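User: What would this chain look like folded?
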Amino acid sequence: MHGELKPAVRKFIIALFIFAYAGLNYYLGWRGWEAFGSYIFQWQAYYWGMLGTLAFAYFFGHFLNRYSPGRVSDVLLWTGAYWMGFFFYALLTVVLIDILRFMDNFFGFLPAAIKNSPTLVAVIILIFLAVLMLYGTYNSRRPVLRKYRITIPAPSKLKNLKAVLVSDVHLGNIIGRGRLEGLVKKINKRQPDIVFFAGDIIDGDIRPFEEQKMGLLLSKIKSRYGAFAVMGNHEYLGGQYKELIKALEKSDIKVLRDEQFLLKNSLYIIGRDDKYSRNRKSLADLMAELETQLPVIVLDHNPADIEEAAQNHVDLQLSGHTHTGQMWPLNYITARIFATDWGYLKKGSLQVIVSNGYATWGPPIRIGNRPELVEIIIRFR
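Assistant: Here's the prediction, encoded as structure tokens.
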């Protein structure tokens, strides 16, 4: 059973997260009050009320979006998403300042002008964070075309294959029809033989996908052999994965859930169910009846099981999921978690390409990396 936690453990983890998140927001709010409290003392209740609303706006927005969707839920989602990015970098900045203040008690290296002007320092920090959010928004909307040329030493009637790989689009309230329209145009411009979606196409909620008629846009993708997709963790998170699969299939995208597809009697495409699924099969089971002389391409949203792919003599694995952390310095964490959190890796006869994604999840910003569309020219021999 994969991706399943006991109810008591799940509740404990959720409670621990809420407690830690609320505590860190309070810490940030208290440091802000130290800087501005003397100027807005009579509005103290409004200050803390606004901080609490911002801190939990994203979660309130998701709750309303499920039971009473509309403009209010959309505003809360957008506001909360930006707050998460702002909160993350504000927390890093304030913690760094507090460390410097602590060290200054022993070494006395901070200028008096800084130590005696906490409000001015706070204003500078706010301006810096505002500029950072603007840059992150701009950067998140500048996808780069990443190109790979690889050779698979296995016979195939196709000889060559031009593939486009897309991952982590997160279509929904924040990544909407306009962004999808740009993606479809970029895919079609490459004139691919085949299109691979490596999971997290839809962000768990089918309502905005259907309301904005995004399925019609997806059906306009043009390729010689069609488009194939696997499920990501976000397709499961909203509990609507069956409806999402139907919507994608209706958009002419073949969803592979622990399934094999023989393309033109020339190569196998294996789509693995996401690790979040309870019933994910082993790769050995999926490959048990294949003609192993033919090339094997595996789509697996999460690149955690690269070793399993290598042991089963997969030729090429295509993944996403990591976003390369999305916001620096989280990329250092993803680099430690995965054998490769982005780019190309060769492990024996296995080749792996991991995309950092076309869009964003949560904060609609990217810092330290750019979104990408991946083009792969595959030569067989």
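The chain has two domains: 7-139, 144-380. If you want, I can go into more detail on any region.
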